[in-house]
Design goal:
The chain has 125 residues and is mainly α. The chain is 79% helix and 0% strand. The protein has one domain. The N and C termini lie far apart (38 Å).
């Protein structure tokens, strides 16, 4: 659980940096460290189905869904830095929908993120 808490703090730092205009300078390293901590990367997430991603992220503690939510948020933050953001946003959206269905708790925050992603996808399309 310590890993999940630390990754949550990293994501908060990513959002803070982006909102402060420092995202391009500081966020790539934080995103890379966070993916290494999750023992995954963008390529794996983009090329696998949510079920497979959950299994890979489960680890010894069975917290795959929690890690998947963090991975989805990392994809969103990475999309702000990418010259090709749509695949990242589409996968983040897919993972968040998967979480809404498979997690035991309904999340309003996830629903708001999904709405924001939808708006951004339409804007970029």
């Amino acid at each position: 659980m310590v890993q999940i808490e630390e990754l949550g703090k990293a994501i908060a730092q990513l959002v803070f940096n982006r909102n402060a205009g420092n995202g391009p300078d500081k966020n790539p390293e934080i995103i890379g460290q966070s993916f290494r901590s999750l023992k995954t990367d963008t390529a794996f997430l983009l090329n696998h189905e949510p079920d497979d991603i959950e299994l890979a992220l489960n680890g010894e503690d069975g917290c795959g869904l929690e890690r998947m939510e963090l991975a989805a948020k990392l994809l969103i933050e990475e999309s702000y830095l990418s010259s090709v953001p749509l695949p990242l946003l589409n996968k983040a959206q897919e993972l968040l929908y998967y979480l809404q269905i498979h997690d035991t708790a309904f999340s309003l925050e996830r629903m708001m993120l999904l709405q924001d992603i939808e708006v951004e996808i339409k804007r970029l399309s």
